[in-house]
Amino acid sequence: MALLELENVHSYYGSIHALKGISLTVEKGEIVTLIGANGAGKSTTLRTISGILRPRQGRVMFDGQDLAKTPAHKIVNLGISQVPEGRGVFSKLTVMENLEMGAFVRTDKAGIQEDIEHAFTLFPRLKERQKQVAGTLSGGEQQMLAMARAMMARPNLLLLDEPSMGLAPILVDGIFETIVNINNEGTTVLLVEQNALMALQVAHRGYVIQTGEIVLTDDAKALQVNEMVREAYLGH
Amino acid sequence: MKTQTFDFKSVLKTSLLAGGILIYLALVGLLTAFLDRDIIYKTLSLSFALVLINNFVFGYIAAQHNSEHKWGTAIGIGVILGIVSTAMLSVLVLISEPLNMREMFVNASPTLVKALTFENENIVQGLLPLVLMGTASSVLGAVTFVLPPLWRKVLLAALIAVLAIGTLEELVSDVVTNIFKLFGNKRAAKPALKFFFGRKGWSVNGAIIMFVAAAVGSYLWNWRGSVVKEKIGALPKTAQRNLRIGTLIFLFAVAIFLPNILGGYLSEILVTVAIFTLMGFGLNIVVGFAGLLDLGYVAFFAIGAYTMGVLTSTQLSQTTELVSFGWNFWAALPIAVGMAVLWGILLGVPVLRMRGDYLAIVTLGFGEIIRVLALSNFLQPKIGGAQGILGIAKPTIPWFGGAIVLKSSLELYYLVVVAAALAAFVSWRLRDSRAGRSWMAMREDEDVAEAMGINLIKTKLLAFATGAGFSGLAGAIFAAKLTSIYPHSFNLLISINVLSLIIVGGVGSLPGVVVGGLVLVGLPELLREFSEFRMLIFGALLVTMMLVKPEGFWPAATQKRELHAGDEVEPTPTPEAA
Lengths: 236, 578
Ligand SMILES: Nc1ncnc2c1ncn2[C@@H]1O[C@H](COP(=O)(O)OP(=O)(O)O)[C@@H](O)[C@H]1O
Ligand SMILES: [Mg+2]
Hints:
The complex is a heterodimer of chains A (236) and B (578). Chain A is of the alpha/beta class and 236 residues long. Chain A is 39% helix and 27% strand. In chain A, a hairpin with a 2-residue loop joins strand 1 (4-13) and strand 2 (16-26). The radius of gyration of chain A is 17 Å and the shape is globular. Chain A starts with a strand and ends with a helix. In chain B, strand 3 (396-399) and strand 4 (402-405) form a beta hairpin. By secondary structure, chain B is mainly alpha-helical. Chain B has a two-stranded antiparallel ribbon. In chain B, helix 8 (169-182) packs across helix 11 and helix 12 (298-312) packs antiparallel against helix 14. Helices cover 72% and strands 2% of the residues of chain B. The interface between A and B is medium-sized, with 30 and 24 residues. The structure holds adenosine-5'-diphosphate (ADP) and magnesium ion. Adenosine-5'-diphosphate binds at residues 13, 16, 18, 36, 38-44 of chain A.
């Protein structure tokens, strides 16, 4: 059984039909990437999974459970953490307070402390800046913080929305390296990206989304050499 | 801020502005209204002090932008500014009579001419002291900016102390007398007062001594204060805790004796301040902690007051069709608070999905609806319509078989202060709890907060309910204080005042609520003797304060960070008292 399964999902913003029958699966332990152009519906897909949007049709199954009836704030209890587009750190809180926020649903103080230490080994930059206010961090540091905060809930599935957005190439490399590290430690990742080249290098499988529909799915390796993908996203 | 190079045009602009304001002050009558209102007896009237203050402030500002931190430049700037601005005022004096300006500006009168020429027959000669003193003051202002920060603070503190106490001399004299009374030595007050104060304002000796004392105090505070703070910071945790408890006990003791020290008039003001502070704590939870802009906050104040009114009034049948329930204050209090909480939740539910401006507008509507309902014929049989509710019971405290009725403002003061202290305590505990963290996250970003596992519905309703509860409590006490309530007491202005006091104090800050209450509600009362100029002065003070301290007087730690986001890592903020 797949860890996450979307079955013919239709989502709307009012009368705007943003997702037109999305189906995709993420298996336990995988990195799956969802690539597509701006406005294709990538973020909408993630919002539908995390319960901020409700599908009008179709099902979202997680770990054999239908998410349709789970309120958005309970999703994290089930083991899904998300890093929203544009990072969404609490800009007035310090790095440390942001991390503590990430563990909001947990009550095991010792475990939280341990995980904070662990987050600092994943992102050493954050350790140096733990007392700094998140709003004053650089873009790359904010991205690290958003990811570290999401990990504080000890998720089974991590949803990442365009972690490379607006970052210098050198920083992007580091971020993707960390995604692989996180995955190696056992967290399944659904990675949304416009930067298809990078995403396909770290992912196991990929889906291509266009105007609310999945148009292509394959192994990451195969997608990297796919003519259509190369033309549309890799600039060849 | 502009780069600090000397720019003659900029100095001239500031000078013209300073002169323009002097002319404005003259034409609205401020320079003549308080000629008899001495700050230093027979030496400095409040009216003339305004000229000096104006020039001092503008001298300081001009130096800030242009002096390059050099003495010579600063003095030059002060001279230019002083001469230009007082010359402008002088022109007004010179032309007011020949041009017969009085027809248009009532205040361009012979009195003004006399005042500014110090009653000299020769007008040109008489204007000389004005120009000299005005210039001296702006030079002093400019030089003050160039002083090392410590000395600048010391000088400013001393000047402000002399001016503020001199202005409020009558009230201060009363307070001093009361303090002597408290220590059982009322007679000793007289000679002391006579030494320090003239018939109005300071005596010259008093002003000098005050100046020196304030300077020394400020010096010690600014110089030794940081050392003391460091030492306290180095103390073990338990000692720090004891120290804080000690401070609280001290404040508590002061709070107990405050009405005796302040006397009737100031105590009356204090009760009003405390009622608003109590409301401020409530709205601070909604706006400051949870970030929900509520402009209809007065609704819960009204609900609390009306519940108290209906349940305890002994003259209910006079204005309504009901027969008196005749409850006592204490029995009605929980019901009043409960009703406010209930309505806080009921009004919260429909706005759960709203944010920012929309929320503000809808809550604004709620506030008005409640007021209109109170005024309506529809509810008149129950709550009295425009005639309100009369004969509301005063709180009583059972005491050895009998009962004390809290009727004077002095006695009510304790009730309100206890209520406000309770609200402060609850706010403080909530802020550091899970609820507080949920509010904080929600205020920053609702979607992300939800993704962290925060239940937005519960979090919002808890904020609305707690806020409404405090407001209801304030309303109940307000009703008992006045013993009669009318719909027009519950207008939009109350919501705005409470919101403003939070902003003035520092959004989200608990000590800020108290400071905001004192400034926003207390200050206009203190300024009452300035009658028609009261709101002008108050408004000018408010604008200045918000320019100087945009984050409020006592900002919350997170707020401070926001406004100084450019600064390097903040040191640990000063611990907030509860
Ligand atoms: N809040 C919203 N209201 C209305 N339409 C939206 C909203 N958010 C996104 N959309 C629309 O839905 C479509 C998909 O958007 P999105 O999922 O954000 O794209 P992507 O993340 O792939 O760039 C776009 O056409 C976009 O205009
Ligand atoms: Mg997107």
